[in-house]
C-alpha cells in the first residue's frame, strides 16, 4: 500500500467518523460554547506555531464555529477537536507535505471533559513524546495521532481509555520498542493501526483478547514478530488484517476460526512461502481483498484453489517468484475487479477464461514472460470494456499489431512498453477521452504521429512513445489539449527544430527527447518549461549554442543529461539539489571553477568528459560528499590532482585519462575506500605507485595507470586487491621483479557478471550506471562496456621489470589477457601456463626468456593472439593445431626455436625423416617434390580465390622451367572456367589458350556488385558471396550495403552450423552437448547478428575468418558457438569503406591484372571486443602473401631459384640447390 493511499485513507476515515459523530450527537450551535472550554482552546493555540493560518478563525466569540471544533447542540460542550493537517498542493506518491501545525500539546485540553474525538494527525510535534495527560480524557472514543512526528515511549496510561473504539498511532517513531502489553486491555477497541511506527519484538499474546477488533494494521514494523498467529483464532470479528512485516518467519499456522468474516487481508512484503496457502483458503468465501505481493519465497505455480474465492474483488500476488501459466480457473472469480500478477516468472498465453471477468477494472501482468497476440488479448477483455481502467502488460513478449481500443471508454492507464508490438498507432487512440497514461515505448511501432492521435486526450499526463520509429508531424500552431507531467520521446523523429508544441507544456516534471534528430539552438521559450522538471534528457542530438545559468532555470532537478551534442561555451552555474549531471561529448571550454560556486551535497554523478575544458582541477571537492562517479577524461586539464579529492569518500569511479596531469598520486586518495575504478592512463604522473593502493582500496576492480612516468618497483601490497579484474601498469618506468603474490587476485579466478554497474537511489528515483573502460586488445585500444565484467587482464608491458615470470600468475584461471612484453624478464615460461584455459591473448615478446615453450600452452584452445618473439627460447614448438595456427611472427627472433609453423626443421626431425640409404640425388629429388607441394598449395590458393570470385584471366600463359625429375607427373587445377595443367612430359602443354578458358564461360556468369552501392536487390550468389567474405577476412573492411551483407553472413553462418554433427542429433543429445537445442543456438546467434542495424560489428574480420574455415579452427560446435557469441557481444560497429575495392582480390571479367601495379593486400591482425578471439591460420596467410608479392605477367617464367625463395625462403636444408634446365 502506497503512502498516498494511506494518506487518503487517513483523511477519508477522519471524515467518515466526523459524519457519524455529527449524526449521532445532533451537533449544532444553538447553545454556544462554554467559556471555560473556549479559554482552554486559546491556551492550546498559544502553544502551537501556525505557519499556514489554520487556526485563523479562532478569534470569534463562539468557539463552536471555529475550524475543527464541534460542540453538542444540547449542552454546548466541545465533543470533537478535528485538526488533521491538510496536504499542500504539491503531493505525489512518494513525497508528502502538509500544512502542519508545530509545537506542543497544551495540558489545557484536560478542560475538555466531554471530548470524545481528538484528531491531530499529520501535524508536526517535533519528536516530542505523547503527553501522558491525553490518557486522562476518559470519554475519548476516537484518537488519531498518526503522522505527527511523535517519538519515545507510549504512556502506559493509555491503557485506561476504556471507552476507546479507534486508535491510530501509525507513522511515528517509537524507537524500536516493543508494543506495550497494556494496549491489549483496550477491550472495546474496534480499529487499531500501529503501522510504520518502528515497533519491534514479539507481539503481546493478549492481543487475542481484543474480540471486538474489526480492523488491525501492524504493517511495516520491520522487526516485529507476530509469532505463529495463533491469537488470530480468537478475533472472531476481524474483517481487516494488514501484516506486511518483513522479515517475518513463516508461521506454522494453526487452524483459524473459519467463521471469522475476514474480508481484507494484507500479507505483503513478507517471507511467506507456499505453506501459507492452506491457511488462506479457510477464508475462501469471505475474502474480498487479498494482497500477497513482495513475498520473495512464494514460488511455484499458482494453485487452482484461488479460483474458488468467488467473493474476491482484489488479488495482488505481484513481485514474487511464481512461474508456470495463469490458471484457467481464474475465470471463475467473477467478482474480481483488480488482478495484479506482475513481476513474476509467468509464461504462456492469457487464458481464455478471463473473458468471464466482466467486472474487471485493473489487469496488471507486466514484467513476466507472457506471450500471445495483443489483438486477441483485447478480445478476451471485451466483456470488461466498460469497466477496465488499467491495462499493464509492460515487459512481456506480446506481439502483433496495435489493436483498436474503441469501446474501452473507461481506460485511464495503458502500459504496453517493452513488447514486440508492430505496425502503426491507430488514430482511434485519440478517442480514449479518459486516458491519463499512454506508455507504449520500446516496441517495433512506426509511422507518423499526427495531431489526430492525441486530439481528445485532455486528461493525458504520462506519454511514452520512445524507442519506436515514430515521426512526429505536428503543425507549428498546434496547441495540445493536455498538460503532461511525464514525456518520453527518445528515438522519435522530432527534429530538425525543437517542436513548438512543447512550449505549451508547463507542468512537465520528466522530459526525455534524446536521440530525436534535433539540430537546433535551444530556443528561449524552452527554458520556461524546466522549473518543475526533475528528469531532463536532451542527449544524442545535434543541439548547438551555449547554456544559460542553470541554477535559475531548474527549481528541483535531480537528473540532467545534455551529452553528445554540439554545445559550447563555459560550464554554466549548476542548480542546487542536482544528483546527476552529464555534459560529456560536447565542445565546452574554459575552466570549471564555476562549479565551486554551488555547494551541492547531493551530486552523485558528474561526467564532463570529451570536451575542451582546461586549466587546473578545482579544489572544492569537499562540498560534493555524495559524488559516486566522476569522469573528466579527454579534456585539457593540467597541473596536479588536488589533495581535496580525498574528501570524496563515496567515490566509486574516477576517470581522469588523457590529460596533462603531473605530480604524484595524492595520498588523500587512500581515504576513498569505496573506489572500485581508477583510470589515470595517458598522463604525466610520476613517482612510485603507492603501497596504500592495495591496503586502503579493497574494492578496486579496475586500475589503469598506463602511459605515465611511474617508477620504482611494484609493491607486494598491490596483491591485496582481491577484487581487481583489470590491472594495467604498462608503458611506465617500473623496475624490479613481478610480485609472486599475484594469485591473491581472486576475482581473476572466477567468472563475474557481464557489466560493472552502479545503482543510484535519489529521492525515490532509481538509476543505474554501467561503467566502461578502454582496454588494450591485440595492440589496439577498444572501449568495453557491455562485456567489461568478463575482461580479466594484466598488462605490465613496456617497463623495465626483471626476474622470472612468477608461476603464481597461472593460478588466475579466468585470465583472458596477459602481457609482460618489452621488459627484461628472464628464466623459463612457467610450465603450468596451460592452466589458463580462458586465455585469449598472451604476449611475452621482447624479453630474455629461455628454455622450451611449455607443451601445456598447446592446451589453451581459446588462444587467438600469441607473441613469444624476440626472446632466447629454444627447442621445438609443441605440436598441436593451436600453436601451429599462428604465423611465424609469433616466434621470430628466437634463433634456436624450430618446428612448424617455422620453416626451420628441428635436428631430430631431419634425423628421423632422412635415412642414410638415400643418396644426395634422392635428397634433391625429395626436396624438389616438397617444394612443388608447397607451390601447388600456393597456386591452388590463388586460383581458387580468383575462381570463386568469378574472375576471368583472358589469355594467360605460364611457363615453368624445371628439371624433369623434380616435379610430380601432373599438377591439374580447375576452378570454374579456368583449367591449368602442368606436365613434365611436354613443357608446351602447360600453356592454356583463351579458347580453352572460354569453353565453360557460359556455365558460370559472374554477378559483380557495384561496390559501395545499394541499388541491386538481387541475392548474392553463393560463390561470389564467399569471395566477398574472403575480402573482408583479408582486409577487415566492407564496401557493400550492410543489409545485403547481413543476409549473406546470416546465410553462411547457418550453413556452417549445419555442417556439424550436432545438427543431426536428437534434442536430448543436443541439450547434453550444447546446453540448448541446435535450433535455439542457431536462432540466438542469428538474432544477435541481425540486431546490428547501423553496420557490422567491428569484429567483422574475425567473424569472416571463422565462417570461411570453421571446422578446421573449431572441431566442436560448442567451441565454435562460444567463439561466435563472444565476437558478437560487442557494441562498436564499422563504417562502410570508401577506399577503392581491392583489385588484387577481385577483378572484373575479361580484364587482365595490371602488370605489377597492385600492392598486395595485407592480412590485418584480427581485433575484437570480447573475451574470446579465435586463432588465425598463419601458414595460409603467409604463403598467400608471399605468392602475391611475385610479379605476374601475361607471359611469365618462374625458375627454380625464384620459387625456392618464395616458398622455402631462408629455411635450412642439407640439399644442394637444383640446377636450372
From TrEMBL:
Domain Disease resistance R13L4/SHOC-2-like LRR: 104-245
Any one Pfam family match given in the protein's UniProt record, by short name: LRR_14
Bilayer-spanning residue ranges: none
Membrane topology field: Single-pass type I membrane protein
Signal peptide annotation: 1-23
Residue ranges constituting the Leucine-rich repeat-containing N-terminal plant-type domain according to the UniProt record: 36-72
Listed Basic and acidic residues bias regions: 1148-1166
Chain intervals for the UniProt region annotation (Disordered): 1142-1197
Localization annotation: Cell membrane
Composition-biased stretches (Acidic residues): 1184-1197
InterPro entries: Leu-rich_rpt, Leu-rich_rpt_typical-subtyp, LRR_dom_sf, LRR_N_plant-typ, LRR_R13L4/SHOC2-like, PPP4R2, RLP23-like
Annotated keywords: Cell membrane, Glycoprotein, Leucine-rich repeat, Membrane, Receptor, Repeat, Signal, Transmembrane, Transmembrane helix
Xref: PANTHER family: LRR RECEPTOR-LIKE KINASE (PTHR48063), LRR RECEPTOR-LIKE SERINE_THREONINE-PROTEIN KINASE FLS2 (PTHR48063:SF101)
Family according to the record: Belongs to the RLP family.
Protein name, entry field: Leucine-rich repeat-containing N-terminal plant-type domain-containing protein
Organism annotation: Vitis vinifera (Grape)
Upper classification of the organism: Eukaryota, Viridiplantae, Streptophyta, Embryophyta, Tracheophyta
Amino acid at each position: 500500500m502506497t503512502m498516498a493511499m494511506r494518506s487518503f485513507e487517513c483523511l477519508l476515515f477522519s471524515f467518515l467518523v466526523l459524519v457519524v459523530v455529527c449524526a449521532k450527537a445532533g451537533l449544532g450551535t444553538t447553545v454556544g460554547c462554554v467559556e471555560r472550554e473556549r479559554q482552554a482552546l486559546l491556551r492550546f493555540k498559544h502553544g502551537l506555531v501556525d505557519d499556514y493560518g489554520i487556526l485563523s478563525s479562532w478569534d470569534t466569540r463562539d468557539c463552536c464555529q471555529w475550524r475543527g471544533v464541534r460542540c453538542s447542540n444540547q449542552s454546548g460542550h466541545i465533543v470533537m477537536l478535528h485538526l488533521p493537517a491538510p496536504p499542500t498542493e504539491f503531493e505525489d506518491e512518494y513525497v508528502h507535505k502538509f500544512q502542519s501545525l508545530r509545537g506542543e500539546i497544551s495540558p489545557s485540553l484536560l478542560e475538555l471533559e466531554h471530548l470524545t474525538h481528538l484528531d491531530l494527525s499529520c501535524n508536526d510535534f517535533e519528536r516530542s513524546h505523547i503527553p501522558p495527560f491525553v490518557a486522562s480524557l476518559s470519554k475519548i472514543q476516537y484518537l488519531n495521532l498518526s503522522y505527527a512526528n511523535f517519538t519515545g515511549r507510549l504512556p502506559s496510561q493509555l491503557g485506561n481509555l476504556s471507552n476507546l473504539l479507534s486508535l491510530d498511532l501509525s507513522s511515528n517513531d517509537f524507537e524500536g520498542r516493543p508494543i506495550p502489553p497494556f494496549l491489549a486491555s483496550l477491550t472495546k477497541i474496534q480499529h487499531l493501526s500501529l503501522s510504520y511506527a518502528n515497533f519491534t519484538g514479539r507481539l503481546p499474546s493478549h492481543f487475542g483478547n481484543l474480540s471486538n477488533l474489526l480492523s488491525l494494521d501492524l504493517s511495516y514494523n520491520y522487526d516485529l514478530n507476530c509469532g505463529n498467529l495463533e491469537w488470530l483464532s480468537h478475533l472472531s470479528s476481524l474483517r481487516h488484517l494488514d501484516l506486511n512485516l518483513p522479515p517475518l518467519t513463516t508461521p506454522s499456522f494453526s487452524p483459524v476460526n473459519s467463521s471469522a468474516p475476514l474480508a481484507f487481508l494484507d500479507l505483503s512484503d513478507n517471507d511467506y512461502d507456499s505453506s501459507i496457502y492452506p491457511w488462506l483458503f479457510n477464508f475462501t468465501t469471505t475474502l474480498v481483498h487479498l494482497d500477497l505481493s513482495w513475498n520473495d519465497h512464494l514460488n511455484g505455480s499458482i494453485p487452482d484453489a484461488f479460483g474458488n474465492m468467488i467473493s474476491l474483488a482484489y488479488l495482488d500476488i505481484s513481485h514474487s517468484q511464481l512461474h508456470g501459466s495463469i490458471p484457467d480457473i481464474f475465470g471463475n472469480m467473477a467478482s474480481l475487479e483488480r488482478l495484479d500478477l506482475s513481476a513474476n516468472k509467468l509464461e504462456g498465453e492469457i487464458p481464455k477464461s478471463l473473458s468471464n471477468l466482466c467486472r474487471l477494472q485493473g489487469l496488471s501482468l507486466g514484467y513476466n514472460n507472457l506471450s500471445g497476440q495483443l489483438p486477441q488479448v483485447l478480445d478476451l477483455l471485451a466483456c470488461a470494456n466498460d469497466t477496465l481502467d488499467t491495462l499493464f502488460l509492460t515487459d512481456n513478449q506480446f506481439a502483433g499489431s496495435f489493436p483498436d481500443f474503441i469501446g474501452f471508454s473507461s481506460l485511464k492507464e495503458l502500459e504496453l512498453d517493452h513488447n514486440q508490438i508492430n505496425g502503426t498507432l491507430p488514430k482511434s487512440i485519440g478517442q480514449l477521452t479518459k486516458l491519463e497514461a499512454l506508455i507504449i515505448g520500446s516496441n517495433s511501432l512506426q509511422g507518423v504521429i499526427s495531431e489526430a492521435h492525441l486530439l481528445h486526450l485532455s486528461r493525458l499526463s504520462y506519454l511514452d512513445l520512445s524507442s519506436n520509429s515514430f515521426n512526429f508531424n505536428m503543425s507549428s500552431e498546434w496547441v495540445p489539449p493536455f498538460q503532461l507531467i511525464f514525456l518520453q520521446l527518445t528515438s522519435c523523429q522530432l527534429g530538425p527544430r525543437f517542436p513548438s508544441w512543447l512550449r505549451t507544456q508547463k507542468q512537465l516534471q520528466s522530459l526525455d527527447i534524446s536521440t530525436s534528430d534535433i539540430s537546433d539552438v535551444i530556443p528561449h521559450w524552452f527554458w520556461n518549461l524546466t522549473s518543475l522538471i526533475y528528469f531532463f534528457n536532451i542527449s544524442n542530438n545535434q543541439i548547438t549554442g551555449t547554456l544559460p545559468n542553470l541554477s535559475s532555470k531548474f527549481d528541483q532537478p535531480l537528473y540532467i543529461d545534455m551529452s553528445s551534442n554540439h554545445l559550447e561555451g563555459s560550464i554554466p552555474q549548476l542548480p542546487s539539489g542536482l544528483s546527476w549531471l552529464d555534459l560529456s561529448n560536447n565542445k565546452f571550454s574554459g575552466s570549471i571553477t564555476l562549479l565551486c560556486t554551488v555547494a551541492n551535497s547531493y551530486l552523485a554523478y558528474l561526467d564532463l568528459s570529451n570536451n575542451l575544458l582546461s586549466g587546473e582541477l578545482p579544489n572544492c571537492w569537499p562540498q560534493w560528499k555524495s559524488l559516486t562517479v566522476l569522469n573528466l577524461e579527454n579534456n585539457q586539464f593540467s597541473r596536479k590532482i588536488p589533495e581535496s579529492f580525498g574528501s570524496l569518500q563515496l567515490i566509486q569511479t574516477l576517470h581522469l585519462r588523457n590529460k596533462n596531469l603531473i605530480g604524484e598520486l595524492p595520498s588523500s586518495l587512500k581515504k576513498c575506500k569505496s573506489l572500485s575504478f581508477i583510470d589515470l592512463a595517458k598522463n604525466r604522473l610520476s613517482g612510485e605507485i603507492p603501497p596504500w593502493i592495495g591496503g586502503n582500496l579493497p574494492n578496486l576492480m579496475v586500475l589503469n595507470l598506463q602511459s605515465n612516468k611511474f617508477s620504482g618497483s611494484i609493491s607486494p601490497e598491490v596483491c591485496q586487491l582481491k577484487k581487481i579484474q583489470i590491472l594495467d601498469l604498462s608503458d611506465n618506468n617500473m623496475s624490479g621483479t613481478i610480485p609472486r603474490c599475484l594469485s591473491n587476485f581472486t576475482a581473476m579466478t572466477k567468472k563475474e557478471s557481464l557489466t560493472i554497474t552502479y545503482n543510484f537511489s535519489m529521492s525515490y528515483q532509481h538509476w543505474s550506471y554501467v561503467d566502461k573502460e578502454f582496454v588494450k586488445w591485440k595492440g589496439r585500444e577498444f572501449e568495453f562496456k557491455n562485456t567489461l565484467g568478463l575482461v580479466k587482464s594484466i598488462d605490465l608491458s613496456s617497463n623495465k621489470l626483471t626476474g622470472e615470470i612468477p608461476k603464481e600468475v597461472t593460478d588466475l584461471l579466468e585470465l583472458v589477457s596477459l602481457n609482460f612484453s618489452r621488459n627484461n624478464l628472464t628464466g623459463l615460461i612457467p610450465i603450468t601456463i596451460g592452466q589458463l584455459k580462458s586465455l585469449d591473448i598472451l604476449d611475452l615478446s621482447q624479453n630474455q626468456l629461455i628454455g622450451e615453450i611449455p607443451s601445456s600452452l598447446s592446451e589453451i584452445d581459446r588462444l587467438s593472439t600469441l607473441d613469444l618473439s624476440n626472446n632466447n627460447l629454444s627447442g621445438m614448438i609443441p605440436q598441436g593445431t593451436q600453436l601451429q595456427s599462428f604465423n611465424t611472427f609469433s616466434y621470430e627472433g628466437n634463433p634456436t626455436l624450430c618446428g612448424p609453423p617455422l620453416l626451420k626443421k628441428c635436428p631430430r626431425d631431419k634425423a628421423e625423416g632422412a635415412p642414410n640409404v638415400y643418396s644426395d640425388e634422392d635428397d634433391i629429388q625429395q626436396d624438389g617434390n616438397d617444394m612443388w607441394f608447397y607451390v601447388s598449395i600456393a597456386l591452388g590458393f590463388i586460383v581458387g580465390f580468383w575462381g570463386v570470385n568469378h574472375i576471368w584471366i583472358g589469355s594467360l600463359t605460364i611457363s615453368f622451367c624445371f628439371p624433369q625429375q623434380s616435379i610430380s607427373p601432373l599438377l591439374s587445377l580447375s576452378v570454374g572456367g579456368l583449367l591449368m595443367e602442368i606436365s613434365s612430359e611436354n613443357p608446351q602443354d602447360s600453356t592454356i589458350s583463351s579458347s580453352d578458358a572460354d569453353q565453360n564461360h557460359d556455365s558460370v556468369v559472374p554477378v559483380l556488385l557495384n561496390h559501395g552501392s545499394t541499388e541491386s536487390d538481387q541475392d548474392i550468389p553463393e560463390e561470389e558471396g564467399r569471395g566477398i567474405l574472403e575480402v573482408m577476412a583479408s582486409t577487415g573492411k566492407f564496401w557493400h550495403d550492410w543489409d545485403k551483407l547481413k543476409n549473406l553472413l546470416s546465410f553462411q553462418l547457418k550453413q556452417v552450423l549445419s555442417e556439424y554433427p550436432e545438427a543431426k542429433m536428437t534434442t536430448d543429445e543436443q541439450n547434453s552437448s550444447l546446453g540448448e537445442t541446435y535450433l535455439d543456438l542457431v536462432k540466438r546467434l542469428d538474432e544477435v547478428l541481425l540486431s546490428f542495424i547501423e553496420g557490422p560489428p567491428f569484429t567483422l574480420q574475425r567473424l569472416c575468418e571463422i565462417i570461411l574455415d570453421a571446422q578446421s579452427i573449431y572441431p566442436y560446435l560448442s567451441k565454435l558457438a562460444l567463439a561466435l557469441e563472444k565476437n558478437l557481444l560487442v557494441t562498436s560497429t564499422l563504417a562502410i569503406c570508401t577506399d577503392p575495392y581491392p583489385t588484387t582480390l577481385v577483378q572484373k571479367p575479361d580484364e587482365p591484372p595490371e602488370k605489377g601495379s597492385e600492392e598486395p593486400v595485407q592480412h590485418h591482425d584480427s581485433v575484437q571486443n570480447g573475451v574470446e578471439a579465435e586463432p588465425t591460420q598463419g601458414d595460409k596467410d603467409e604463403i598467400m602473401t608471399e605468392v602475391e608479392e611475385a610479379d605476374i605477367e601475361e607471359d611469365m617464367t618462374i625458375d627454380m631459384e625464384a620459387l625456392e625463395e618464395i616458398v622455402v625462403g631462408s629455411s635450412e636444408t642439407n640439399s644442394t640447390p637444383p640446377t636450372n634446365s
